[in-house]
């Protein structure tokens, strides 16, 4: 062992290469034997190897890490600026559902084709001419609004427009009050961000359904008071019942997210539940308008002008 120790000491003082190689072989041969006895062999590497394998001090690693954080933040800001610029110029691309921010995640069965957050009203307005998951919703809203605006102007130009069902004065006031309350509730639910989350989908559907069916109660009232035959022929109640069926169907599909619930990713752009809901609501409103118009024409044509309810 003394000769071995001397060789190791001589290795650090610049011993010949042949001696160093022999010591290395000797240590390699003794290594397994020493490990079996539970001992460890620690060999001092040459200074040149120590300099090459010397670990970086922890302080230097922290300095490098601190320097890279501002650089990463700078790159992130550049990417964000580039994204905003592309969106502003109308060159944005649709994104999948998983990339959307939480406040835009409403229907997890629509997997692809979502519109990213728009940075301005201008960019948002230009997006209505692009194809994405909201395209059908936007245009069913917009076309319905334009059609009813035209019908509203046309209706105001017609004389003796009488929309309320032929009931007594007190029930009319009650039903009008209910319609006003439901209308205000629908506006609040539609505009308040708290109700825009997916967990309030049933709440939104219920409020819209209640507003759409607000005419069913006075219709049933008139049917019970005057009889089914008179209500369906003179009172045009058959159209009102059809309107109720369409409202209920649309709201039910919207709340249950049918058909995309059964075919995720297949109705991302067209024929999703929200679009079907819009179409049925607009169609039900036209049915309601048609029934009320027939009722008004009948009442006006009885004696060439406004008549009493008792003549129905």
Describe, in plain words, how this protein is organized in 3D.
The chain is mainly α. Helix content is 63%, strand content 0%. The chain has twelve helices and no strands. The longest helix is centred in the first third of the chain and has 31 residues. The N terminus and C terminus are likely disordered.
What's the layout of helices and strands?
Blueprint: H1 2-12, H2 17-36, H3 47-53, H4 58-88, H5 121-126, H6 135-156, H7 169-191, H8 201-212, H9 216-226, H10 228-233, H11 237-256, H12 273-301
Helix pairs in contact: 6-12, 7-8, 8-11, 11-12
Summarize the structure.
The protein is an all-alpha fold and 312 residues long. The chain is 63% helix and 0% strand.
Distance between the termini: 125 Å
Helix count equals: 12
Order of helices and strands: HHHHHHHHHHHH
User: What's the total count of β strands?
Assistant: 0
- The shape is elongated
- Beta-strand percentage range: under 5%
Mean pLDDT, as a whole number?
74
Biggest sheet overview: none
Class per helix and strand makeup: mainly alpha
Low-confidence segments: 1-53, 304-312
Radius of gyration: 39 Å
Percent helix, as a range, is 55-70%
List its traits.
312 residues, mainly alpha, 63% helix, 0% strand, elongated
């Amino acid at each position: 062992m003394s000769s071995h120790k001397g060789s190791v000491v001589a290795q650090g003082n610049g011993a010949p290469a042949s001696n160093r190689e022999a010591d290395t072989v000797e240590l390699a041969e003794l290594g397994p034997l020493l490990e079996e006895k539970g001992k460890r062999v620690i060999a001092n590497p040459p200074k040149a190897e120590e300099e090459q394998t010397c670990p970086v001090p922890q302080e230097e690693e922290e300095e490098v890490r601190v320097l890279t954080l501002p650089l990463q933040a700078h790159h992130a800001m550049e990417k964000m600026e580039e994204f905003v610029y592309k969106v502003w110029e109308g060159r944005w691309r649709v994104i999948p559902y998983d990339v959307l921010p939480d406040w835009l995640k409403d229907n997890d069965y629509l997997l692809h084709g979502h519109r990213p957050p728009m940075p301005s009203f201008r960019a948002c307005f230009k997006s209505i001419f692009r194809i994405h998951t909201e395209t059908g919703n936007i245009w069913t809203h917009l076309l319905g609004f334009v059609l009813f605006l035209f019908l509203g102007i046309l209706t105001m130009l017609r004389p003796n427009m009488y929309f309320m069902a032929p009931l007594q004065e007190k029930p009319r006031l009650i039903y009008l009050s209910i319609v006003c309350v439901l209308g205000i509730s629908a506006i609040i639910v539609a505009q308040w961000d708290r109700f825009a989350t997916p967990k309030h989908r049933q709440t939104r559907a219920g409020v819209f359904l209640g507003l759409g069916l607000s005419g069913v109660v006075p219709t049933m009232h008139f049917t019970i008071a005057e009889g089914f035959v008179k209500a369906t022929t003179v009172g045009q109640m058959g159209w009102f019942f059809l309107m109720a069926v369409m409202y209920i169907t649309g709201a039910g599909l919207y709340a249950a997210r049918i058909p995309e619930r059964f075919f995720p990713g297949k109705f991302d752009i067209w024929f999703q539940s929200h679009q079907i809901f819009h179409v049925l609501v607009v169609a039900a409103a036209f049915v309601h308008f048609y029934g009320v118009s027939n009722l008004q024409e009948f009442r006006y044509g009885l004696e060439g002008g406004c008549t009493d309810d008792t003549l129905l």
